[in-house]
């Protein structure tokens, strides 16, 4: 087979690009002859890349488009058709390293269609030769690489690739390492002396993923799909190396067999469906369980469509279904061309890959500060949608795949999976492509970016970054953080859009009157919200820490940190090494240290403190907060905005003490709803003051708050 050097490859690449562009517009290159000549040159090149190199540069859909174009031109202009045309033969898939073996029966390709209309036409066409009740066996079209197996006297004798259809490559050594191909099978018991079985060798999606990971780890470019990986593996010269990669096989066709003297052929082999069942019984991997026999076009179409929906949930790749005339006698009647059998057709699924040009890369800031590079490509239709933006995920992936601006890129979109770049088509490089430069500053707020220890992703850690602020406010107010009921996502968005809040600190400056004036809000709900915010000022420190949304700092770490630090702004002076210890590893320590090293974040913390937000861990009070020193408290009934534990914590944070029962030592009884016997008992003692929840909250307000606070805080006690 012809080999291509890089210069020839580059020329054929750009010729292909130009052909595809013309084909999409329905135009010839210059005239019919020049178009056909160009197709005769590029198709064998892509066959070489696909079959020999296992590294195609076109998507199958694009290749099939060029192929169909040539077939059509040959039909319309038979005088211009070449004798060795790819339309009339199986593509040459013979390398040189392995020895060639002749096939007993030619191994052909399949005719294919991409739409159900053509599938219906094909069924109608076959019925003109067979008869109207013909049945069809539908089975998955496995996206692997074809093999032929020969068994003699029950033993596996030989395994071969399809090669050029007439002869294939001897891959017996590699075949023996595939678990789903038995070394022997009980054919003799059925009277079968020799048999040739055909099928497909595959790599599961899972094995493929780890296969590519390994390639990247060894500085090798990832392969585009499991098919290329399987084909490449099967043709490896060293079976030990091939055995490392987990290949599987499905067998779906008996092409040839001889019977022992006087034994009749097994009835099962008279139909395609029976053959699959028999192979399964003999211990081969087969599509017996997924097959379906139908007798109408409607049934066939429906099965194809239902299978296409299941495509992504299968453990291996399929690229369509194969529809085969079920009856072996009818198959013989239909016969074959030099390219494909007439009794089978492939219904191919919508393409999921396409080539496009990468024009530029933008950097988007995620809702929690992650910086994601996004490739802007020329719009291209893949799997039924137009794709123009493709995430490049992170800097490492760009480096691993060596993606550059100006590259032609192979883009895939599989089912629900977001589109991604399989690989750049390096053969199409012109030398003008440029490396993708990662920004050092946040593209939204201009803050220096940080890459956490051991991570691949850069982050903007500025809590007031415009790109993140909404999400961060929602997190800050969430149940496990500051627990501000009434500040869920939709309300936060509303306040933000109405300019009532702009960042986390501004929550504590929220104007009750303005909230009440919003649509669907009223005095009462606004006042409730302000009450919740008031309560949030006194939340235990771990809630504030968790609410800041520091990477890797969940509830547990927040607790550990609160205990460790005592007064939150002190963290600004801590190095990662000071933070490490119980429950805080190097990665978390570094992330915390980055967060507090950020001046903007410290400014925000200072502002929060000025607005009365508690910065002290329980038991680490500052002098200024000793407002309840020497005072004793007790709670009765249900409090509206606090749990008992939180209330007790507040008392202790301000130097007070919580008693367990009404006694002479008690100064204050805080009375909630459904107050019980404690209230009755305390009412008898004039020295004990009864407080409502709102009065209590006023008492625990820290002094800083009192200085700046001009707003009246109301908590409605039901
Ligand atoms: N992207 C490229 O550059 C490029 C180049 C060459 C070929 N190709 C692709 O390969 C196709 C041609 O390759 P091909 O000749 O191997 O044809 P094919 O892959 O479209 O179909 C024929 C093959 O399907 C396989 N198959 C899987 N499940 C089967 C089943 N249940 N029953 C029968 N066969 C089953 C067999 O190996 C058979 O040889 C093209 O249509 C194109 O999509 C792509
Ligand atoms: Zn930012």
Descriptive overview:
It catalyses: NAD(+) + (deoxyribonucleotide)n-3'-hydroxyl + 5'-phospho-(deoxyribonucleotide)m = (deoxyribonucleotide)n+m + AMP + beta-nicotinamide D-nucleotide. Keywords: DNA damage, DNA repair, DNA replication, Ligase, Magnesium, Manganese, Metal-binding, NAD, Zinc. The active site is at residue 141. GO terms for molecular function: DNA ligase (NAD+) activity; metal ion binding. Zn(2+) binds at residues 442, 445, 465. This protein is of the alpha+beta class. The chain folds into five domains: 6-88, Helix Hairpins (Orthogonal Bundle); 107-348, DNA ligase/mRNA capping enzyme (D-amino Acid Aminotransferase, Chain A, domain 1), CATH 3.30.470.30; 354-435, OB fold (Dihydrolipoamide Acetyltransferase, E2P) (Beta Barrel), CATH 2.40.50.140; 469-610, Orthogonal Bundle (DNA polymerase, domain 1); 623-708, BRCT domain (Rossmann fold, 3-Layer(aba) Sandwich), CATH 3.40.50.10190. Helix content is 36%, strand content 18%. The strands form six sheets. It has a five-stranded mixed beta sheet with strand order 2-11-10-3-9. A five-stranded antiparallel beta sheet has the order 14-13-12-16-17. Strand 12 (353-365) and strand 13 form a beta hairpin. Helix 4 crosses helix 10. It starts with 5 loop residues before the first helix and ends in a 10-residue tail after the last helix. Residues 703-718 have low confidence and may be disordered. The structure holds nicotinamide-adenine-dinucleotide (NAD) and zinc ion. Nicotinamide-adenine-dinucleotide (NAD) binds next to helix 2, helix 3 and strand 3.
């Amino acid at each position: 087979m012809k080999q291509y050097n890089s210069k020839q490859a580059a020329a054929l690449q750009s010729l292909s690009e130009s052909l595809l562009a013309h084909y999409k517009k329905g135009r010839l290159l210059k005239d019919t002859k020049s178009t056909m000549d160009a197709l005769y040159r590029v198709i064998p090149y892509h066959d070489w890349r696909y079959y020999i190199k296992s590294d195609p540069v076109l998507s199958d859909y694009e290749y099939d488009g060029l192929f169909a174009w040539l077939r059509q031109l040959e039909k319309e202009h038979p005088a211009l058709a070449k004798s060795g045309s790819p339309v009339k033969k199986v593509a040459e898939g013979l390398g040189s390293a392995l020895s060639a073996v002749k096939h007993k029966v030619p191994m052909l390709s399949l005719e294919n269609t991409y739409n159900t209309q053509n599938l219906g036409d094909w069924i109608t066409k076959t019925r003109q030769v067979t008869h109207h009740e013909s049945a069809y066996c539908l089975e998955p079209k496995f996206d692997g690489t074809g093999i032929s197996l020969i068994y003699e006297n029950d033993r596996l004798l030989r395994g071969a690739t399809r090669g050029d259809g007439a002869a294939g490559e001897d891959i017996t050594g590699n075949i023996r390492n595939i678990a789903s191909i038995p070394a022997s099978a009980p054919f003799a018991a059925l009277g079968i002396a020799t048999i040739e079985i055909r099928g497909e060798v595959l790599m599961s999606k899972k094995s493929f993923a780890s296969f590519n990971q390994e390639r990247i780890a060894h500085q090798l470019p990832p392969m585009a799909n499991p098919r290329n990986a399987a084909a490449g593996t099967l043709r490896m010269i060293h079976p030990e190396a091939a055995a490392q990669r987990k290949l599987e096989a499905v067998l779906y066709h008996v092409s040839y067999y001889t019977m022992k003297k006087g034994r009749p052929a097994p009835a099962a082999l008279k139909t395609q469906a029976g053959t699959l069942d028999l192979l399964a019984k003999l211990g081969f991997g087969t599509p017996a369980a997924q097959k379906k026999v139908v007798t109408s076009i409607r049934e066939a179409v429906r099965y194809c469509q239902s299978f296409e929906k299941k495509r992504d949930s299968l453990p291996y790749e399929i690229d369509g279904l194969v529809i085969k005339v079920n009856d072996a006698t009818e198959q013989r009647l239909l016969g074959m061309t030099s390219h494909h059998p007439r009794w089978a057709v492939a219904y191919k699924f919508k393409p999921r890959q396409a080539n496009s040009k990468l024009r530029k890369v933008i950097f988007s800031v995620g809702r929690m500060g992650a910086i994601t590079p996004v490739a802007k490509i020329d719009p291209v239709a893949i799997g039924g949608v137009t794709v123009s933006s493709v995430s490049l995920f992170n800097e490492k992936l760009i480096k691993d795949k060596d993606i550059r601006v100006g590259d032609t890129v192979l883009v895939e979109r599989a089912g629900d999976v977001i589109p991604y770049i399989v690989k750049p088509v390096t053969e199409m490089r012109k030398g003008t492509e440029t490396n993708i430069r990662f920004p050092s500053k946040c593209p939204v707020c201009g803050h220096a970016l940080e890459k956490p220890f051991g991570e691949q992703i850069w982050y903007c850690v500025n809590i007031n970054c415009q790109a993140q602020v909404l999400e961060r406010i929602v997190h800050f107010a969430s149940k496990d953080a500051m627990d501000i009921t009434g500040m869920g996502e939709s309300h936060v968005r509303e306040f933000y859009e109405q300019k009532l809040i702009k960042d986390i600190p501004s929550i504590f400056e929220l104007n009750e009157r303005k909230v009440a004036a919003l649509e669907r809000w009223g005095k009462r709900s606004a006042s409730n919200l302000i009450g919740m915010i008031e309560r949030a000022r006194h939340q235990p420190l771990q809630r504030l820490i968790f609410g800041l949304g520091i990477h890797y700092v969940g509830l547990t770490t927040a607790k550990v940190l609160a205990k460790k630090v005592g007064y939150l702004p002190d963290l600004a002076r801590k190095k990662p090494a000071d933070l490490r210890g119980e429950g805080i590893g190097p990665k978390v320590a570094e992330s915390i240290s980055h967060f507090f090293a950020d001046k903007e974040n410290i400014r925000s913390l200072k502002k929060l403190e000025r607005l009365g937000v508690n910065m002290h861990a329980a038991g680490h009070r500052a002098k200024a907060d000793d407002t309840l020193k020497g005072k004793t408290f007790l709670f009765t009934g249900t409090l509206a905005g606090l749990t008992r534990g939180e209330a007790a914590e507040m008392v202790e944070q301000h130097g007070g003490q919580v008693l367990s029962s009404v006694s002479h030592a008690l100064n204050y009884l805080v009375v909630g709803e459904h107050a019980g016997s404690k209230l009755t008992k305390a009412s008898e003692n004039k020295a004990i003051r009864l407080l409502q929840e709102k009065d209590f909250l006023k008492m625990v307000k820290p002094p800083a708050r009192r200085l700046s606070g001009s707003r009246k805080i109301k908590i409605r006690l039901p």
